[in-house]
Amino acid sequence: MAEPAALTETGPDPSGPAVSLRGVTKVYDSGVAALGPIDLEVRKGEFVSLLGPSGCGKSTALRLIAGLNAPTSGTVRVFRPVVGVRGRHSVGFVFQEPTLMPWTSVRENVRLPLKLAHAPAREADARIDQALAQMGLAEFADAYPRELSGGMKMRVSLARALVTDPDILLMDEPFAALDEITRFRLNNDLLALWRDLRKTVIFVTHSVFESVYLSQRVIVMTSRPGRIAAEIGIETAEPRAEDFRTSVDYAGYCRKVSNALAPSHPGQHSP
User: Fold this and answer.
1) Where does residue 211 rank: exposed (0-12), middle (13-18), buried (19+ CB within 10 A)?
2) 255: which residues sit within 8 A by CB, 6+ positions away?
3) Among 6, 92, 93, 102, who pairs with 166 as Cys (CB 3.0-4.6 Å)?
4) Is the pTM of this model over 0.85?
């Protein structure tokens, strides 16, 4: 018997989770089964990482949540409060590559989603200034992407996502291409932003270490078609700081996540 038609639903339910996936699958036109079925709930204000090897459906799950693709079956529900401010989005998406426009400045790159939403210029300017300040970019507002390091370009991408004041921030391996020192610094900055803004964050990564450091909960996924192999809560004192990276608790959680990852895809997990 064929699966029922998939539904992607949104609604202003303040008592429910930020994101809910129920029986969700994704099969591409080529016949490749990329995802599921999976069931997942993410609470409002929670920081969750999706961890697994390439091709396990992590990025596919983000695109379904963002509404960029439709599921083949199952239901995706995303909490979207009533928004009265033009240019304010419920979901912000940070891709693996910064995807900046090389011909214009940092300020104008950050302005893009507000421009597309026809936000009033004065209001847009104030929101751009705020997003640049949040990401430590105020003095680089007039710089061009070619003048920035990889880490700074990713800060611009984050500022562009934050300028719409999203309730949910979806991040698809944003720091994967960066050197370790820059990656650690951006991990710390992202945690500080999350504590200050209390956004719901769903973060895709290949790194056990990164997932444990950032998350309140790590979702370990199997090889394609991606299913949930384990959900591991990271319970540690807040706010987290550099001393957590060298703690016994951190090492223990990394071991636990690695052990959960290994049975589903032996030899494929990365640190």
Assistant:
1) buried
2) none
3) 92
4) yes
Q: Could you tell me the CA-to-CA distances from 246 to 190, 249, 250 in Å, in that order?
A: 19, 9, 7
Task: Show the tokens assigned to 264.
Answer: 């589903």
Contact 240, 247 (CB under 8 A): no
Measured distance CA(72)–CA(248) in Å, rounded: 43
Contact 71, 24 (CB under 8 A): yes
- Annotate the chain with three-state secondary structure: CCCCCCEEEEECCCCCCCEEEEEEEEECCCCCEEEEEEEEEECCCCEEEEECCCCCCHHHHHHHHHCCCCCCEEEEEEECCCCCCCCCCCEEEECCCCCCCCCCCHHHHHHHHHHHCCCCHHHHHHHHHHHHHHCCCHHHCCCCHHHCCHHHHHHHHHHHHHCCCCCEEEEECCCCCCCHHHHHHHHHHHHHHHHHHCCEEEEEECEHHHHHHHCCEEEEECCCCECEEEEEECCCCCCCCHHHHCCHHHHHHHHHHHHHHCCCCCCCCEC
